[in-house]
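Input sequence (841 aa), recorded before submission:
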Amino acid sequence: MTEPISSLDVIERKRFKPGPSPLDRPIAAPEWTKGKAPHAEAPPTIVLDGLWELAEGGEDAERLGGGAWTDAIPARVPGSVHTALVEAGKLPDPSFGENAPLAKAYSHRTWWYRRTFEAVPGMQAPRLLFDGVSPACEVWLNGRPLGYHNGAFGGPHVELGEPLRKRNELIVKVHPAPLGNEWNVWHQTVVFNCNYGWHYVNLPAVGIWRPVRIRGAAEVEIGPPLVAATSAANAAEGLVDISLDLTGRSDRWSGTLRGTIEPDNFDGPAQTFELRVGESERRRELRIRAAIESPRLWWPLDMGEQPLYRLKLSFAPEGGGLPDSLETTFGIRSIEMAPLPEGSNPERYDWTFVVNGKPFFAKGSGWCTMDALMDFSREKYDHFLTLAAAQHVKLLRAWGGGMPETDDFYDLCDRKGILVMQEWPTCWGSHVHQPADALEETVRLNTLRLRNHPSLVMWGGGNEIGSGLDSASMDMMGRLSVELDGTRPFHLTDPWGGSTHDHIVWNGWTPAYSFDYYANLESVLLGEYGLASAPNLESVRRYMPKEELEQWPPEPGKSFYHHLPAFDTRDEMRILTEFAESFARCDSVEAFVTGTQLAQATSLRHKMEQARTRWPHETGNITYKLNDVYIGVSWATVDWYGAPKMAHYFAQDANSPLAAVVRFGKLNSPEEDQELPVYVLDDNGELDGDWTVRVRAYDPALALVSEKTFPGKGRAPEASRVGSFELKAAPPERAPALIVSELLDEGGSPLYRTFYWLNFDFRQGVLMRLPKTSLEVAADDASGTATVVNVGAFPAVGVELYRDSAEPFVAGDNFFWLDPGESKTVSVSETAGVGTRGWNA
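Predicted structure, token format:
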């Protein structure tokens, strides 16, 4: 009998030789009752977040001597040294001008933190828990050394071994960031590394950047539970398994475990179980099955709702001693990866994403660590992830230049339905050189912390690893993905096993070739590609000195160059100018902004649409990238301040669940006849009744050159070709410049509309020299909207709502097309001072 062909997923999993998964344990099925039940409180905890003293340098004896630190400034924990220095007036804003090199000097100095605190009654066997200190530290409590710790993503965790005093002093010595070759100096530790000079900023972060607390021990402690539905069938029935460990302080113990499951973000019934655990040795492993009443499945964005449940567990020991208690949220969903239509391949991962038994095209973007100086506020995360959702991004690749993301990031992704591929913080084979113990601790702690999030769909060994794929460190990451989880796939790296990355724009090709190349590029899953662009002009004004803004071209080596990708070490200014000049003569910063943003939107949107039309043979598409670690000219579609670029809005169109798109093979070939395929994309089966796709072509005088309609009826497949639109050869001055594609309902109203530009390379600036029209705008404070009307005689092209303000302005739609006399109402983040403009208005 012939064995079935295995995918690379199966082959690699065998290679890791993992032990059992938590879900391989035998199932206990206690009786569940309706309603809640009382739970014991967790052991006392002292939260040490807040203001600490911060001082630079000095000998150990001096700092540990108990005297006043006369040079200290206040510092917020969680936070960074640099933020404290800025807030104390000791350092200018590192994001402005050429200030980052000034700030970098502070990254390579030793810093001391100090905090005094009171003990709380009833605390037994206290443990000091740091969730993150970057990059390394030493710790003293009441003058007693507690040891050294390397690595930013959890730890040190220290058993104190003796009771706290009534008043206590905690001192942390934060070691300098390693100094040397920025491409690999960070190999000495485990940190997010995209701020070490190879990316957009050379400003390593230092400080106590995550919470600190002291927690008392329970008599029997509940380990972090794993909560999961093990199959699509189980998820549909509401069958959820809870795997956990109970660890006693004594060799023999017994007691009662109680658990309650209730809705977290919706109304519904609660249910509770009790399970008596008989006399046990120090550690007991359990797997408990729950049958959730009237289960509600968690779905990715645009596919359904995101109901979350809350699990509360408590353990009451028999014979006295402190009880334990904890909580976690989870969603009921299954995740699996299915083969491509041609079946599994031993040299390729199974790349079709399937949630709750439903396969779907993974519209994605890269996720960059949000801030070089570790400002990871929930409000900031919410802003960027809301914009990701507006782009219809179903999948974020949290790549290895970044970090295991925070609890707030994952909680918000859970609530918005945004899936995450989480890579460990390694790049280009760094895992072979990074300290093995620090890397393993990072993987262990963060797997346990993150594994219940329904948004987390994949683990990854790191970014663009070309060597060391068969190393002990890689096997460790793969092994622990099973032994600590086992519910989601692990990929060695990306690109690998069928996925690809493409950075052709940096390889010397001409812009015209690159635009066509991206429009025709095929891949199973393109995990990284794109083009950099300048931020909006309002953002550029925030980080550039005024006197430099007034000169063009910018002076090499000054502020503008400092805020280029990789600081122009790869000739980015020349390359970006060449791309921008396909659209505008770059004689000012305004023209450079417009030209680069048009080039970025052109590079991204055609590939995004083409990939969707190739479903199911192409299963996803991940642009590089959504956001930035630092402000500047970059590949992000939303700048560091949170302001969307032009590409954000065209990505929003390209990812729309319901769309009508035109595929282009050549964007600048006016003297060739072209047959352009036209597709309807209907991810969720929204179409019903009669509908029509209408495609219109306009010349540079905004005269209608040709028009064609494609009638349809009822539901269409997710990617359905409805016909072709002919473009006849014409001289460049008369060739079509704009094409409008729209999907109309049976009454002729647009369900979707987008527009394309082409043949622009022959007529530099043609998009800004179209016949003029006039726009009027009225904002409505009550609804938070603005309505734009085209009151002129020509179509309005690239209509934009804007606000002349330093703060990021977000519109629900922007850079859209309005026919003469047509109006559009759009949600806006601010109504005061909203204006409108367009490429020809």
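Checked by second reader. The chain has a mean pLDDT of 96.
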